[in-house]
Amino acid sequence: xxxxxxxxxxxxxxxxxxxxxxxxxxxxxxxxxxxxxxxxxxxxxxxxxxxxxxxxxxxxxxxxxxxxxxxxxxxxxxxxxxxxxxxxxxxxxxxxxxxxxxxxxxxxxxxxxxxxxxxxxxxxxxxxxxxxxxxxxxxxxxxxxxxxxxxxxxxxxxxxxxxxxxxxxxxxxxxxxxxxxxxxxxxxxxxxxxxxxxxxxxxxxxxxxxxxxxxxxxxxxxxxxxxxxxxxxxxxxxxxxxxxxxxxxxxxxxxxxxxxxxxxxxxxxxxxxxxxxxxxxxxxxxxxxxxxxxxxxxxxxxxxxxxxxxxxxxxxxxxxxxxxxxxxxxxxxxxxxxxxxxxxxxxxxxxxxxxxxxxxxxxxxxxxxxxxxxxxxxxxxxxxxxxxxxxxxxxxxxxxxxxxxxxxxxxxxxxxxxxxxxxxxxxxxxxxxxxxxxxxxxxxxxxxxxxxxxxxxxxxxxxxxxxxxxxxxxxxxxxxxxxxxxxxxxxxxxx
Length: 495
Hints:
Porin
């Protein structure tokens, strides 16, 4: 008997420990921690109030299961019916959207102001540049998708002479081909040309892309193009065939160009590769190295037999990185040009707020009655975002987008009487560009531009731009060195 009692007493502490642990764990599930008085090993455990809320919940559920609350059952049934109607409507809306084109309006306003200072040689070369202000672009359009695989865009420009810009239909998600686009749009040639003018670092593109752009290489033309990218979005490729028609000309450029149906076909191709790209948390493409190359072959269309005297079949010119100026380089008519071949490598680096971009282009002309000239040009640009943002990049197109400020600009008075301000994003930039249109008896001139830029991004859709351009033109016929200084500003608003 004594031995059995000892054994029971020995087991008693272990049993009490197990019960205490189990009770504590169960209490943590239902109740917040409570303070209890210390008790001895032989004292009974303190009474704990039953969890009335949980008991009520159990009773509530049990009542529903037993059918004891018909009113609540009816309300639940009505709620389920309403949720089903909402889900059915959502699915119907998706089905309707997939069967009819969506419509999204968009537009942009670019308002420019420019002032000039020229030396006498520049006035003799290109005529006087007149100070002024006006719309550089005023566009509105519609875009959307249809049947999950089609997309379209219609864009018109009302600044100056009303004209079509991007007007096309595209088919997406095709095996191997990716996307096929048919209509009127930019050719797949060059990085700076393809970057939207909403997002360019400077007000105007460089010398090789301004004015006549080496005969409008890479301009908007009617055609068909396919483009695609790899799964990791580090490579893109594009190829297209276009009808090389007369493009838009600056107000002072010779007019009267008339083409017939002989020639005027262009073939382009472009390839890009990102050997290095880095994301830092929510900041995408914070660092990247962009490389690429583009090429084109184009036949020059013939003049119509009914073309008036003085009509130009083919010529090259360049503006001094200001739309409101005149051509500072111009080859004159090169009407015996048969075809043109061009090659253009491209390179860009983004390292946080720092960015560098450069391209160079060679253009070979084949002429039937004169020696074949080779023209060339390029640019290098640097920019730094003082507020820390970085340039955005579209990895499926191999193009740069704009800068999104960490905080938009605002200036408001709060209830406490204080004035609070958001600074937006600030960027400084510099570019040097060069163009040579003198070779093989053609003396179109050599131009070098230095451009300083300051950009204030008030929001992702609003920007103020300030540019100073120092332009020097030489070797244009018998003219002396022409020097022009340009001060220009732009307000951009997109929607």
